[in-house]
């Protein structure tokens, strides 16, 4: 079914595969960037992952304007402003972000500060309210396969002074180039591979079943689900499997492009709230909540879930399952994948395992109803519904 | 070729007029329901003092400014009020018309990129829930079934609400405040008393 109206944009150029990193200098040149600022974190510097990128840039003749690695997990306006000043002091003219969701989100925040010239950042807070601003070349190199941040149009920055998590949604936040190279994810531990991969699966499933879905986001979501079904367990079992690593990097990027253009739903709304209240890793929250969120939406999304069974479980299981049971079968398949990953690498299956306390449920539920993802969830959810969902997932 | 066709001009004029009326009635609905519907009461009570919302039909189209005060809700004059905390700005007169004539709900308009939203998304969610609830009273069942995800139970009759809104209009309860009021954001930023 085609929506009466929809919009879609996925503007990042994708460099995927062997020696993708070595092609970045040409892309920087094409973007008119002569002195990029490299953003990363201390862990990636310590692991040597950042050095692999620097080697690729330097061997291609790129002059590095500066390297900034003091980036915490949850970036604040203060960090973003510091990076903005560092960028100007070092006469940089573009950004290369190497890292997971936090680093790439921080880079997006720094790009907002540098490109918008807003007197007060609160003026541009919101959804689709940002102008293009000054062009700041921006290349994202993800080091996890889950957040899809390299293709999304969302940035979240903490404003500690105003006690506010500022959320920016704009097509102008998408990077110019996203680089998918297996050297960036091969050191990712199995548990993290599984958890971030489940986050990507959640992006794809929610993108395919929420109110803003459209034919193009569907295409990306389906391809992502298919790749995750084929490769997630292989990547978790053997991190050196290059085919699986590259497929998961692509799946994560595609799921990101899908949900950027169709949004996510209740699983993410509750997951964001739990992350804020109980400080649990986002991928773990998605793993635990996904089947319960799907059960909550089941009657509204029966058709979509049934269709996705083919792509996640393959044609054999799909054809053996009666049409009216395919949606339930999809949820069972997801639980089976999670259970196998639990056995392989200890992926958590309940909120209790994650250390969530029951007394935090009320605050999490109150926060979740005000999450932006809730607006496009196919089924209305109030505080009571979310409390019930949390109890089930406990 | 620089002139808009008469057809489009008339269509815009009619749509803007309709939107102005619906915004007025919507405000009346929210004002009355704040006193009579526990869910809207909860939502509005959760807004910070001075919180100012704006619903705008296109950049220069009809708009509604609502402010939370110590006594409840207050309607501000769009010709005077220059600031807001959260604003839903419809991208066109036409997308606003779809929402204000019950052809599309707020969630549907969001999904169809019908408006841009400026401000904190969390506070916008609370406002959109309040508008959904008000619409559930103001529109007939067959429309509500189409535009809302689920039909909320009414805590008063729709007819009763319409009578109260009519009374409110006649008594001048929804008259606009003709001064520029300080928003919540401006207050917390230390910009005003």
Automatic annotation (TrEMBL), chain A:
SUPFAM superfamilies per the UniProt record, alphabetical: Dehydroquinate synthase-like
**To which protein family does this belong?**
Belongs to the iron-containing alcohol dehydrogenase family.
Instruction: Name the Gene Ontology molecular function terms of this record.
Output: alcohol dehydrogenase (NAD+) activity; metal ion binding
Q: What is this protein called?
A: Alcohol dehydrogenase
Query: What Pfam families does this protein's entry cite?
Result: ADH_Fe_C, Fe-ADH
PROSITE patterns (UniProt xref): ADH_IRON_1, ADH_IRON_2
UniProt keywords, alphabetically: NAD, Oxidoreductase
Q: Where is the Alcohol dehydrogenase iron-type/glycerol dehydrogenase GldA domain?
A: 12-181
Residue limits of the Fe-containing alcohol dehydrogenase-like C-terminal domain?
Answer: 193-394
Point out the coiled-coil segments of this chain: none
Automatic annotation (TrEMBL), chain B:
Protein name (record): Uncharacterized protein
